[in-house]
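hi! just following up on the protien thing from before. the input was this:
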Amino acid sequence: QAQLVESGGGLVQAGGSLRLSCAASGIIFRIYTMAWYRQAPGKQRELVARITYGGTTFYAESVKGRFTISRDNAKNMVDLQMNSLSPEDTAVYYCNANKNWPSRADYWGQGTQVAVSS
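and the predicted 3d structure came back as:
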């Protein structure tokens, strides 16, 4: 059974840093594209960063240059290093695992809260 467990959220002052981690189990981690999404109160869930099985990364414009996504296929983990945080980054952050071949699969973690105070 697939399971994604996020950790590392918390409260930080503006300008500070946090590192989120997502531990995956029950999937062949190395073939999945891993991503971090976030959802702020009253807003839709949005893609923050994505890393393919080959290591190609994509970042939302709002976090480019501040956030870094990385993965460790040996440990089945994906991290999100967040620097220069602002109150606009306050949201629940979700880990996502996705693949389309040989069959489609899409899994979500339970989310971890990130709050940035001004």
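The chain has a mean pLDDT of 97.
The chain has no helices and eleven strands.
cheers
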